[in-house]
Design a protein that fits this description.
The protein is an alpha/beta fold and 182 residues long. Helices cover 28% and strands 27% of the residues. The protein has four helices and eight strands, in the order βαβαββαβββαβ. A five-stranded parallel beta sheet has the order 3-2-4-5-6. Helix 1 packs across helix 2.
Length: 182
């Protein structure tokens, strides 16, 4: 861990938050009927998979899960000096008349979620879209809010939040780093 980082959630805290969120999703939707999960690349995919596992453990039902890549829907694409890396969307089921649970790791300005909604609508017309995030750090630039939040984490603008997951980073933790460009 870098000297400017502070752990705000360890592996157990992440597990408890995801278990709570899974129960909240099931309670709000009165079960799994017409429910599908779509994770936003990259860490939203891992969180969606974990939620699917918890829902299966709780309800005994396998909820369909997909992956959405928002790269080409970003509103800062023309400003980027780097060539975008498109890794692809994989939604192997129809989303018409489903209740889509869109999943991401951190909710910040809302621009990622706006892009994900635009991308999702290219696949059909869901009954509803609900948003799950592990961390809501504030500083919204668009009128978007999460329906289910693992942890509200007020931050300063000069801080950044890093979600590290076993699947991509080898360990589970959420850290705040001071003084980084956001």
């Amino acid at each position: 861990m870098a000297p400017n980082e502070r752990v705000v959630m360890d592996a157990q805290a992440i597990e408890r938050a995801l278990t709570r969120v899974a129960h909240e999703v099931l309670e709000h939707n009165k079960g799994t009927e017409r429910l599908v999960l779509v994770g936003i690349r990259s860490r939203g995919v891992h969180i969606a998979e974990r939620l699917r596992d918890r829902i299966h453990t709780i309800e005994g039902v396998e909820v369909p899960a997909g992956i959405i890549d928002i790269t080409l829907y970003r509103d800062d694409l023309s400003r980027s000096k780097q060539r975008p890396e498109v890794r692809g969307t994989q939604i192997p089921f129809a989303i018409d008349d489903t209740r889509v649970i869109l999943v991401d790791d951190v909710l910040y300005t809302g621009r990622t979620i706006r892009a994900a909604l635009d991308a999702l609508m290219d696949f059909g017309r869901p009954l509803s879209v609900q948003l799950v995030v592990l961390i809501d750090r504030g500083h919204r630039e668009l009128p978007i809010r999460a329906d289910y939040v693992g942890k509200n984490l007020p931050t300063a603008v000069n801080e950044s939040v890093h979600v590290r997951l076993k699947e991509s980073d080898g360990r589970d933790e959420v850290v705040i780093a001071r003084g980084e460009e956001c």
